[in-house]
Amino acid sequence: MSAEARVLVVANRTAECPELLDALRTRTMQGPCQFTLLVPSTPHGIAWAADMHGGGEEAEQHRSAFLAELREEGLNVDDAKVGDPDPLAAIQDECNFHDYDELIVSTLPLHISKWLKVDLPRKAEAATGLPVRHVVGSST
Q1: What structural domains and CATH numbers belong to the chain?
Q2: With helix as H, strand as E and coil as C, how does the chain read?
Q3: Which pLDDT band, with edges at 50, 70 and 90, does 49 fall under?
């Protein structure tokens, strides 16, 4: 496989967690790849009830911090963007406009993850037809 694999990395509150960084390092050892970071602007806590679109500022903070961290690590990051508050819609939007070879979805642990409660990794795989690697990360 000579061409770089295009990998969509989906994370919000786990964006800067060591578990996700380890998964991306591991992925680069499996062959050439280029990452695009997608941070759905999902609000959490009481903000969800108050304003479903209230997660944009926090998502932007995660996006910029994680992008800087990945580039410091020397990982090949093509782009980083904030997406729809609904993580599945954000993934579908991104995959409708760009071609990817695989997804890496990072969530909080099961007992606190809203994304796992809606089975996001499986739904993302079903919606996109792409292989999905699920990473359980710690909250930052």
Answers
A1: 5-136 (3.40.50.620)
A2: CCCCEEEEEECCCCCCCHHHHHHHHHHHHCCCEEEEEEEECCCCCHHHHHCCCCCHHHHHHHHHHHHHHHHHCCCCEEEEEEECCCHHHHHHHHHHHCCCCEEEEEECCCCCCHHHHCCHHHHHHHHHCCCEEEEECCCC
A3: very low
Record the pTM. 0.89
pLDDT, tens digit, 9 for 90 and up, residues 4-33: 999 999 998 898 899 999 999 999 999 999
Measured between alpha carbons, how far is 98 from 139 in angstroms, rounded to an integer? 29
